[in-house]
Design goal:
By secondary structure, the chain is of the alpha+beta class. 20% of the residues lie in helices and 35% in strands. The protein has helices at residues 2-39, 61-67, 136-143, 229-234; strands at residues 53-57, 69-82, 94-107, 123-134, 149-151, 175-181, 190-201, 204-212, 238-241, 250-257, 260-266, 284-287, 291-293, 296-298. It comes from Williamsia phyllosphaerae.
Amino acid sequence: MRRTLTLLALGLVVVVVALLGIDTGFAINAERSFARAFVHPTNGNRGLPFEPEVTISGFPAFRSVSDGRYSSIGITARAVPVYRGGTCTVGDPCHADLRTRLRDVRVDRASITNPFPQGAVFMEVGSATASTTLDSVAMGRLLEIDDLTVNTPAPEGRAGGGGPQDGLLSRTSGVLLTGSVSPRPGRPDVKVSVTVDLSAVGGALRLVATDFYDGPEEHSETTVAEADRRAVLDRFSATIADLPMAWGATATSARSSGSDIMIEGTPRTQTWDPGLFLTAQDTEIYMMYTCLSDGQLHRPPC
């Protein structure tokens, strides 16, 4: 009797594991099918240069795939080119990670064997969010500070702040930037650490350097002469417009995320076609303080 029960239990476990494996296979196939649609879009739209990461949430996946209805789909397109004349060129672009989360998704003409029909993938989406992430290297190139690093200081006034319990730190103000800049034309670069406030203004990422950092985090302790302080801070202040976002979303907020800078927004599109995921836009940089020399406008130092 005991042996029979053991065999039945083992058989049940095998069946459950097999069903889970089959269901996972349906989910993986659907994710791959959806990812391919972003590389080969329809209607002449510009696709991504490579397949994005697609994650389909919900269990069982078989029901979602067969019905063409998904509670949530996450999409991450990594290393999307960002162009800006002079520093991020077509031949040597900067890069950003674009993320979006779609909820209450319905795919037209879907089937269990063809979850996202190639050639005509159109969706109905209940709600969506979008974000674009720039790492320290991309931010340094956009600000023309080659050795720029980004750091999110730990919460102040709390024992153990910044430990594993805090997860990935995030701030909108007091973000720590460290890099080498010249206080005046012809003067050698000095490596400094400054605090920066982040915001989204008119859909653009705005950085405003507020002060020099002297806190507990690792930083440059270089002392800047009083006469040069404003010019040095200005080198870390800028407005970066037209950064690419998923589905042409407009940035409504900005924050740090560990050693990255992130903008976030809500897509407003009514047409959910993978070919419209990426909108070709040139990035423009407007320094917060512009200088005039010999009749020409240029960025600080003046």
